[in-house]
Amino acid sequence: MTTAPLPDILPATLPDTREMLHATFGFADFRGVQEGVVERTLAGESTLAVMPTGAGKSLCYQLPAVMLRGTCVVVSPLIALMHDQLRSAQVNGIRAASLTSADSDEAREAAIDAFRAGELDLLYVAPERASQAHFRALLNTAPVALFAIDEAHCVSEWGHDFRPDYRLLRPLMDAFPAVPRLALTATADARTRADILSQLGIEHAVVAGFDRPNIRYAIRHRDTATRQIADLMREMPGPGIVYAPTRRKVEDLAEKLAAVTGRSVLPYHAGLAPEVRARNQAAFVASEDMVIVATVAFGMGIDKPDVRFVAHAGIPKSIEGYYQETGRAGRDGDPALAVMLWAAGDFALARQRLEEVGEARRGDERARLDALAALVETAACRRALLLRHFGEDPPATCGNCDNCLDAPGVVDATELARKLLSAAYRTGQSFGLGHLEKVLTGVADERVTARGHDSLSVFGLVGPDEAPLLKPLARALQARGTLVSTEHGGLALAGDARDILKGEAAVMIALPARSERRGRKGKSGGATNPLGDPLFEALRALRRELAAEAGLPPYVIFHDATLREMALRRPADRRAFGEIAGVGARKLDAYGDAFLGVIKQH
């Protein structure tokens, strides 16, 4: 079998790379670790790049693709993600195509012909196709410049989105030993990174860090999800994603939120007809203010940069999942908000489901759930805890999470926890919190007296000062697995209950901040047009019109940040317009005159 030759690097010094960066994407310089990753790729070195969402991972392979001889083969897990990136690449003048089941026969034939003729910079494929023998045979018909493996955490069993077909990519790439490999992901702890390197045959990793400083994290106890999310929608203009745990809750929330807020709200889950899912997804991608309610499967294939908030109506599966899902907010770098609403029952159900997990994985899954419980219950900086989970050493406070902005009270509830656990044990570990509260506070109703619980040593042990803490304490103990739900809704001892009862473990609980107890009001994120500039709104209207004509989402033409810079700098000619960040040569030719016309009118 013959293999494609070593990719030739166009003669270029680093300034030439920056010139290509500006000409293609309209950026004057690289961000973060982009420069180092691009340099390694251009030098033919294989790399795993771990970069936070919104840090510009796709640029790290798209720029080398236009500078190297041959085609960059991009392996991506979802068709929607491929087509989204395909549109953006083509608008920037990059020669790109895809081979997917959603493409027409004519489109696939055209893509194959263009690849064989050396007329493609990028070829997007799914891992299922990339691992097949006929695709390997196709790659032998023309030079391959680079293998880019997007969402590379899917290759690892330790990752939260494991895809077995990713494990079949190594033989394909080994057949082209001279072609460098670039694996990219936003979510991979140290264990997952090591597995990715091993599975893909890569030796070097570049870790940019996991912080998304523009996202404000907030975690609140869930009482009425519809009301709480409706309040959030009133505070936050712009597109939003609401994650719900089941299909039924997706549809229920979408219907109620649309009725209560008057905003456009659509559902998305696997139970909907394919054409309905596609229609709802397309409407969300194209919209500048729609909210979509979805199961967690939604979003991985959406490269929409202007999502202003992500809300979880229940707990995610893990911190890794939470980071990935909240990372879909604020990809454009503008302020965004991530809100999680949780209840003790979420953790009770999650711990019950651990029994369904195989013995080999149960310990790891329990550790993930414990880490999520710690994030929910902490009174310290949410961001710091999140980043430490991924192996970073962040400052103690971030100034942009609910606990930093409005510190909750912290109470040593160890003695009260011992009383609550004792009450659960002495009543037979078969009663819920309501009954235990009555016993502890000395309420001798018929149910309590009929069972003789008014004669227990714990009866009336909790006074009026401590009684209000029983509910938040029970939530905290359920979250950490000290109390678990029985089959009939009772509370039973588990986890570290024995250590707490023996005085060998402490229980600190965080009480809601005052503003949360009052009901949080006011803006939580930055407005798209904070100064109310009429020129900005006129530029947005033009962008909307051009996007509709071209059948593109508005953000593919220009991001809001680019429009704001236009409104601020008010360029008078094409030269000045081309200096705006995000205006590359192709976009200058395609849209420059139209936007300059609107600017001149103002």
Description:
The protein has 602 residues and is of the alpha/beta class. The chain folds into four domains: 14-207, Rossmann fold; 215-408, Rossmann fold (3-Layer(aba) Sandwich); 410-511, Orthogonal Bundle (Arc Repressor Mutant, subunit A), CATH 1.10.10.10; 534-601, HRDC domain (DNA polymerase, domain 1, Orthogonal Bundle). It is built from 28 helices and 17 strands. The chain has a seven-stranded parallel beta sheet, sandwiched between helices. Strands 8-13-12-9-11-10 form a six-stranded parallel beta sheet, with helices on both faces. Strands 14-17 form a two-stranded antiparallel ribbon. Strand 12 (309-312), helix 13 (319-326) and strand 13 (336-342) form a beta-alpha-beta unit. Helix 24 crosses helix 26. The longest helix has 19 residues, at 359-377. The protein is globular and about 85 Å long. The termini are far apart. Mean pLDDT is 89; it is low at 1-7, 9-14 and 517-525.
What portion of residues is helical?
40-55%
Which CATH class of the largest domain applies here? Alpha Beta
At the fold tier of CATH, the topology name of the largest domain is Rossmann fold
Shape: globular
Which whole number gives the mean pLDDT?
89
Total domains: 4
